[in-house]
UniProtKB/TrEMBL annotation:
Claim: Cell division is one of the keywords in the record: no
Organism: Stieleria neptunia
Alphabetical list of InterPro entries matching this protein: ATP-dep_DNA_Helicase, Helicase/UvrB_N, Helicase_ATP-bd, Helicase_C-like, P-loop_NTPase
Domain Helicase ATP-binding: 103-247
Gene Ontology molecular function terms on file: ATP binding; DNA binding; helicase activity; hydrolase activity
Highest taxon in the source lineage: Bacteria
Matches recorded under Pfam families: Helicase_C, ResIII
Keyword tags: ATP-binding, Helicase, Hydrolase, Nucleotide-binding
Protein name: UvrABC system protein B
Chain ranges of the Helicase C-terminal domain: 346-481
Length: 481
């Protein structure tokens, strides 16, 4: 075979990766040094994650004078995806901050993160960009409720009956919506179907399993939406690698009184009963004694080592038994904080104070949520509620048939709610992200211009004080009273 008869290099998509055939190691080293390529001996080709497809295409266009066969993408190539005809049926004008977010994405290479508080219209921004780009688009969301919510909004805004991938449905269309878990499962087969991918609540993407939803997609245009970025640098850098840099950022404090309602945060301290205090001290002493004893054995011991130690039943049975006892004490101590009688009494007072308003109550556990639901005869919305039950509670709350809605974490992000101006937090994580998402539930700006209130009920002299302090590190929780 002569040099002129040598087959042209070819690139294709295969199970969430891109394969490169007919390229020498020297060429790879010189022209594609920035791409993490690995040699696949079985296939006699170089291979990398599909997310690098666009960069490979651009660099080969620049470096390979003889041309190449690009077989990536269902429409014969990512650069040749057919343009879609997407009608804009909306009758809205973007606010200034929404327009800034749209322009930041378009001028920032169409790859990156948009950080805007809950209630400022991140979905509006995403649909605007989807319409402007008019290309095959996959929207990835954390839970099935959001999948159906996005489907409804796309139908309303464009008239398109978007495909659904998840919750027992597998209907792939040029515009489709899926969950993170379903995307990670199906992306080896559908990763070459979409030119644009939108990650709602993009902080979920930083985990090792869900990140496959980004790694195995060839989408050149990547948009990540969130109200709050992860707290640690490593996870933020992972999002920047998978999606792109932070292109636009707006805080709650910046949006308050403008695109969001003005608000106040009230912290209310309550005390344990004498009986609760006695049990709380007993459990705390058990934990302190356990940690002290373990440090005498291993000076580097930390509380985080307790769980793996509890599993060492054969190697160190005595220490494993003590670890199990300490973990039980920790759980019971936390339950005293979460279920304190004073919280329920304060909750009753707040219900009376705001007797003519809709109220959301956030708890730290499902048990506490059910306890409130039973005591005050109000709906309780938990993650394992069926679709029909969840829709019944949300519609009833929106229509005013239910004045109070209690939830653990299911309302922390994404789910659309009617205008609510009062939220009560009775427990939760120290996570600033959860705190900001819960605050955002009451900040949607309604027609009445009423000031929103968030009450944070904290048990004095317990770990709840520390968790509350951690939440307050965010500027939004330090807002004026």
């Amino acid at each position: 075979m002569t040099v002129t008869d040598k087959p042209r290099p070819s690139i294709d998509f295969h199970q969430g990766t891109v394969r490169l055939f007919g390229l020498s190691p020297r060429f790879i080293e010189n022209a594609l040094a920035d791409i993490p390529l690995a040699w696949d001996e079985r296939e006699d080709c170089f291979r990398t994650d599909a997310m690098h497809a666009d960069a490979i295409r651009r660099q080969l266009d620049h470096s390979l004078a003889g041309g190449f066969d690009w077989q990536v993408g269902r429409d014969a190539g990512a650069a040749e995806f057919r343009s879609l005809s997407i009608k804009d049926l909306r009758q809205i004008t973007l606010r200034g901050d929404q327009q800034q977010a749209v322009e930041a994405f378009e001028t920032g290479g169409r790859r990156g993160l948009i950080v805007m508080p809950t209630g400022t219209g991140k979905t509006v921004v995403a649909i605007e960009l989807m319409i402007r780009n008019s290309c095959s688009t996959l929207i990835v969301v954390p839970v099935r409720d959001l999948m159906y919510q996005w489907h409804a909004k796309i139908l309303e805004a464009t008239g398109i009956d978007a495909g659904l991938i998840g919750d027992g449905v597998h209907r792939v269309s040029p515009i489709s919506v899926t969950t993170y878990d379903s995307a990670a499962i199906h992306m080896p087969r559908i990763g070459d179907r979409f030119q644009m991918i939108i990650f709602d609540e993009v902080h979920h993407l930083a985990g090792p399993w869900r990140s496959d939803a980004a790694r195995m997609s060839i989408a050149a245009y990547r948009l990540g939406l969130t109200a709050t970025l992860p707290g640690d640098i490593e996870r933020i850098e992972r999002l920047h690698d998978l999606v792109g840099p932070t292109l636009y950022r707006q805080s709650i404090a910046e949006a308050s009184g403008k695109s969001l309602a003005d608000y106040s945060v009230h912290r209310i301290a309550v005390r344990l009963t004498d009986e609760e205090q006695e049990r709380y001290r007993d459990y705390a002493q058990q934990i302190q004694k356990f940690v002290f004893e373990q440090k005498t054995i291993d000076p580097k011991f930390k509380w985080e080592d307790t769980y793996p130690l509890s599993a060492a039943t054969e190697a160190e049975p005595d220490r494993a038994r003590d670890a199990v006892i300490a973990m039980r004490a920790f759980r019971l101590k936390r339950q005293i904080e979460e279920h304190a009688d004073a919280k329920l009494r304060m909750l009753e007072d707040l219900f009376r104070l705001h007797c003519d308003e809709s109220i959301i109550v956030f708890t730290g556990s499902n048990v506490m949520a059910r306890k409130i639901s039973t005591r005050f005869l109000v709906p309780c919305l938990l993650s394992h509620c069926g679709k029909k039950e969840r829709r019944q509670w949300l519609e009833g709350f929106a229509e005013g048939r239910y004045r109070v809605l209690v939830a653990n974490r299911v309302l922390d992000e994404g789910v659309d709610l009617p205008e609510v101006k009062t939220a009560i937090v009775l427990g939760g994580l120290s996570s600033q992200r959860q705190a900001i998402q819960r605050l955002g539930r009451v900040l949607r700006k309604g027609s009445g211009g009423r000031r929103a209130r968030l009450y944070e009920v904290v048990v004095e002299d317990t770990r709840e004080v520390t968790r509350s302090r951690d939440r307050r590190r965010n500027e939004a929780y330090r807002q004026k009273r």
